[in-house]
Amino acid sequence: MHFAEALPLQSGAALADYTLVYETYGTLNAERSNAVLVCHALNASHHVAGMYEGDPKSAGWWDNMVGPGKALDTDRFFVIGVNNLGSCFGSTGPMHLNPATGQPYGAAFPVVTVEDWVAAQARLADALGIEQFAAVMGGSLGGMQALAWSIMFPARVRHCVVIASTPRLSAQNIAFNDVARQAILSDPDFHCGDFYAHGVVPRNGLRVARMVGHITYLSDDDMAEKFGRKLRNASANQDYKFDFGIDFEIESYLRYQGDKFSEYFDANTYLLITKALDYFDPARAFEGDLTRALANTQAAFCVVSFTTDWRFSPECSREIVQALVCNRRRVTYAEIDAPHGHDAFLLEDARYMNLVRAYFGRIWDETTGKEQA
Prior knowledge:
It is a single chain. The protein is an alpha/beta fold. Helix content is 34%, strand content 13%. It has ten helices and 13 strands. It has helices at 114-127, 141-152, 171-185, 203-217, 220-226, 249-264, 267-279, 290-293, 314-326, 350-368; strands spanning 2-3, 7-8, 14-15, 18-19, 22-25, 35-39, 66-67, 72-73, 78-82, 135-139, 159-163, 300-306, 331-336. The protein is globular and about 70 Å long. The two termini are 39 Å apart. The model has no long low-confidence stretch (mean pLDDT 95).
């Protein structure tokens, strides 16, 4: 969907003539009361679930969660996935032409925030005729967007589902993001963000950025179980190669992830999205008081964390829950004992899926009037 009217950004800039790419699943009911917005995380997109015809490898990034009969049941709910501005999966981003110059935006694409994404999503909802969402849901960076929705548009969100997320990044998380950005910025092929004109891609920077990021998505226990100190192609006569190539399985895995990522993701997009992560802090305008930041919310909340998630630890979710309790909001909180670290929100876990299924079952009963009956 194209938008001609300029979108004011938190930076003071504005983005005009932009396009948002989105997908929908299920059917919007006559009352338009069964819509659920699913917000994506760093390297995901609008393609939340299902497969594209003729492409069996194109499963949506949350296909285990969203679909007919699944935890978020598209036989009941009308699910919307929106690709964020600045992304590299269709919505207007750095690789698209700047109407003012006729050249790719590149480094000139404005820095965007979580709140800017939510404002753009609200415009899309307006265009689709959806005045209120039954729920806004997301994991990680998507959870930040869901939380921002509840603050910015309190009357438009009945339920807010925040999974494996945080009200702000820690200094350690900001540090990881900056190391990843520096890997890209220092790649000779980056060309100050205008690498499109040079016909190159800063692959080495992207590889390292992804490797750094991927380490933070896994728990130490998960890495130990999967890889430990296992060697890659060790011979009977010599265990170590005594060079700086790949000795350990974990090295091979991280390089594979980095190589794969550099083939499809845009370097400028990575910079933009990690900076949006860093900037998110709704309590900042309230002298660091999250309770005050959430005071005007009206939604009921479901907050989920995972015990081995050290990137956005359970303590981060508990801070959100405590602030909501102080505001007398309806809150469901679950701390899932799962071994997979931050990535657990994307994976199968029976307790996790059953919890989400039950919560959306409650939303469905509320939507159809069964809860009152």
